[in-house]
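Our consortium's second objective concerns turning raw sequence data into structural hypotheses that experimental partners can test. To show how far this objective has progressed, the report includes one record in full. It was chosen at random from the queue rather than selected for favorable results. The single chain below, 445 residues long, was entered without modification.
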Amino acid sequence: MMAGGEFMELRKRTRYLEQLIAFQDTDLVKVVTGIRRCGKSSLLELMEAHLRDSGVTEAQIIAMNFESMQYADMDSKSLYQTVMKRKLEGKRLYLFFDEIQKVPQWQNAINSFRVDLDCDIYVTGSNAFLLSSELSTYLSGRYVEVKMLPLSFAEFLDFQRYTVETYRSPAGGERKRAIDGQGQVMDLQELFRAYIRFGGMPAIAETGLDQKKVHMLLDGIYSAVVVRDILERGHRKERRAITDALLLRKIILFLADNIGNNTSIRSISNTLVTEGVLEEERRKSRPAVQTISAYIDALLDAYIFYEVKRFDVKGKDYLRTLGKYYIVDTGLRNYLLGDRGGDTGHLLENIVYLELFRRGYEVAIGKLDDKEIDFIATSNGPKKYIQVTETMAAPETRKRELAPLIAVQDNYEKVVITMDQPLDTDINGIKIVNVMDFLLDGEML
């Protein structure tokens, strides 16, 4: 990994690396997915380093990044031939293919390697549709997906060279603080605000959190995703080609501005027309709901946004209307909309959603009569009901946030996550948790 002509130190992404190691030397193809520049290539490098540390020789490792012009003309047949020339008798090969979807008919080569070669295969991709259609057809049941996101808050601190220590507060209880490389104490709240503002794209660690440099970096990422993964992808089977760059940008801005709000495809279409978002000559022809839906599918496929559906707690079924969308990175949102105050609540909700997703939870929005629960999180264990709020200080806010959880008539865990340092850690059986404690304690919840 290069930056400014010098090698950057490869920082560990332990959660994802452990997932790959868990499936090492199995018959399953390891598929790492996520938005561009979230760290997929570095994760493959970390896995290669792990293999070398485990005694695997250099000759056994074949790594190709298909973003490189070196492989611009490679198709599945030439990929197959190139790898088979390096076959080692009595030795397993470890194959690392970065941005594999750029190789036409790549799935044919991967399938052939599984049949013809003693190998362990790792691939990455930045477009869910381009991968999923081929994976489901050719590798059904024979692959495992590692869903990668930008840095968590804990990883953000690590990339910024901070360590976190727990200390005993004079007021009682335990608190956390950040220590830099020179032993200086840094306010954890300030670092969290920086995380909200700049986001967690790994390369931000090299900017010194300089706003101009961060925005240049995010502009490059945004342009690469929109141009390479959406506008240039062309028509793919049942997916509609995305050709209207202006409409795409307007939808991106709408979704970014409405993270955490109940949203429907029809409401987006109506808003684009009635609020004059489109130019005068474009408003006469309302974008069809199917068109808006196709553009949103493209954004989901490129991992810019994640959709969360609503779940009727009483009816115990998912609802088809008014889900929510969350953006992959709050820094990307601030780049798109401009840094502006007064929206911390939605940004906080976005960060909590991403952390739940990162930890492997299936997440839904809860509907209970006329009340809404921010998240219902389900993993291998019992589900959890979660509310997210910037503060619980005001009595009316506390009442509003607790009401949906109190209304749930079952015994599953109920939690409020807040930026406050709560004096009461439990109200009516509902756990009150500080957001930084939640983000820095991987075992919490």
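The partners drew two points from this record. The chain is about 40% helix and 20% strand. The longest strand covers residues 317-327. Both points have been shared with the crystallography group to help prioritize constructs.
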